[in-house]
Every structure is written in structure tokens, then in C-alpha cells.
Amino acid sequence: MLTQHHLLPAAHAGTQRQLRSLHFGAGRSGRKAYLQASLHADEVPPLLVAQALIQRLQALEAGGAIEGRIVLVPLANPIGLSQDLQGSALGRFDLATGLNFNRQFRHLADDVARAVAPLLGADLQANTRHIREAMRQQLGHWQPQTETEALKRQLQCLAHDADLVLDLHCDNQAVVHLYVGSAQVEAARPLAAYLGAQALLHTPLAGEEPFDETMARLWWELAARFEGRHPIDPLGCVGVTVELRGETDVSQALAEQDAQGLIAYLQQQGHIAGEPPPSPAACEPTPLEAVEPVTAPCPGIVVFAKAPGDWVLKGELVAEIVDPLTDQRTPLHARASGRCFARTARRYASRGMRLAKIAGHEAYRSGKLLSL
Description:
Layout: E1 2-7, E2 18-24, E3 32-37, H1 45-62, E4 69-73, H2 78-81, E5 84-85, E6 88-89, H3 109-116, H4 124-141, H5 147-159, E7 164-171, E8 173-174, E9 177-181, H6 185-195, E10 199-203, H7 211-225, E11 238-246, H8 252-268, E12 285-287, E13 291-295, E14 300-304, E15 311-312, E16 317-322, E17 329-333, E18 338-343, E19 348-349, E20 354-359
Parallel strand pairs: 3-4, 3-7, 7-11, 9-10, 10-12
Antiparallel strand pairs: 1-2, 2-4, 5-6, 8-18, 9-11, 13-20, 14-16, 14-19, 15-18, 16-17, 18-20
């Protein structure tokens, strides 16, 4: 295992932070997988899963089983981890700007397309090399203006030449679920199966440039742009956001289980030698545009009738809101059938607050599809 430390520019005197990246494998196959944990720094379960992964990857490397390269960033956001306000961890948003740490990564497709247009030919592998080199160069031109921009640039630099990118997160209260680009659903199905995911959510474009989409979307966009002229693999980088249940689902048993599922998928994808274990049945993919965000039309106490993992029928009660001033009860019913895969841990709602998410099948939303 090779350990690298990446210094971030200090936002204030005496506060310089660093990333740690762990590199496994000799690179024999030329393939690369990249995994990072807790870009939202207050999401703890991925941090423990990363520790379980380190032990497994060290053993696999010692046995010569890592065919290519596997890079693991076991803590992707030291900035957010330091944002503790009177006992409350605030790792989702950058307090300096108010921006979500998993938004506004640098989308490189247009710049890369211009750079590689004169270089592309009939050789698919050569085209892949040209694109990755152009990505590296474009990221090198990026001059970050803030510590958080420098963090984002460093993460993209570590992942730019990966065939597989897994961004490990968790929700508030949730079952395991995944987000992936629609062009890459089939590649993500085995991962959903190995992890026991209960929702596999896909969309052509989620919006706001989250990390996994920024790394993967470039490939299917370039494949479409140069279709009929130059071959480009739309799966040049498979990118998936993995939501490992809820914030308090932190146990050694769950971490070991999730690490084993991730290792099985790395094996299935050819990053680790040997026959992968049989894949269980995976949940059916559903459009992100079909996710129903159950929101509070009024303030009050939240009393849930459905929990993460429950199947909800159209018209069924999901929650009630009880107004403590008027005693009025407001029932909230599902507008379509689907799997309740996440809900808030808060039990008092303000007007407009998102309370739960249900994965339906009929797309009806558009625009920015991700929560803040």
C-alpha cells in the first residue's frame, strides 16, 4: 500500500488540512478503481466502511490479487469534518460559502472535446488515453480560489483516469440505495445486488454537478458527440453514489458487510482477481424523476406511518403532522406506489421541509433532482 498526503491551501493562518489517499496494486491490467468516503463529512458510516476496506485491500494486495490499481480516500472532506458548531456536526455544506460539498465539481466535457478532437481516431483504447490525458491537463489549468475548490480539484485529479468511481455516502435515515447515470444502470446492477440496495435510482442528468456524475457523464456525452466519427466508450468511467443507510447505522458488522459487498463488485468488474461470488437478485432500477419527495405543507410534529424499506401503495398514509398550537392533524399520503428508501430523523417540521423519499416508477419531476 502506498500512502500519499495532499496538502490543501490554508483558508486561515494555522489551519492547513490534508487529504490521504491509499494506493493498492501494481497496475498490471491498466485498470483503475477509485473509492472515496464521506464527502459529506457528517456522514460517518462510510468512514468505518473505508477502514474495513483498507484491511481487505491490504490482504488482497499481499496475495497479488489486485490486477490494476485501486485508490481509496478514506476521508474525502477534512474541511467539513472540522465544522462542529456547539456539538452539531455540519459537514454537508461549506460554512464559508453555504455550498453543498457534493455540488459544482468541474464538468470538463466541452473543454476536453475541443482538446481531443484533432487527436481522436479509430482506436478505442487510444481515444480513451487521449481523453484521460486531456482531463488531467484541464484539471491542471484550474486555479482554485478557495480551500474547498482546491479540495474538489484534488479529488477530481485522483479520480480522473479511473474506470470506476464509487462515492460512499449515507442518508439521514435510510436503507441502502444508489444513484447512477441512466447510461450506466446495467453496470451498477451487480453493485446494487451485492450491497442489498433497495433502490437503484438513475437519471440522464441530476444537475448541480455532483462528484460521481461529473466523472462519469463526460464519457457518455463525448460518445454521443463523436458518434459515427470516432469510437468512445460511454462506460469509460462508471460513476455511482452509494448511500450506506442512515447516519446512525454505524457498527462493525455493517461495515464488514458493506466492505465485502464492495470487494465482490470490484471483483465482478475485473479489478480484483478470482471468480466473484454469485450475485443476488438486484432491485429494479427506477427513474430519479419518479422519486416523490414527501414535504411538509405546514409546521408541526412529524409522526411517521412508514419507515425506510417499507413498500408504500398509492394513497397510503406516509406521515401525519400535528400542530401543537391548534391540535390539527394533517395527513400526508403517497401520490404513487413505491419504496420508501429514506426519511428525515427530525420529528418537528417547518413548512416545506422534506420528510421522506419514495422511489416510484412513473417519472414526473424535472430540473434539479437532488436534494440540497
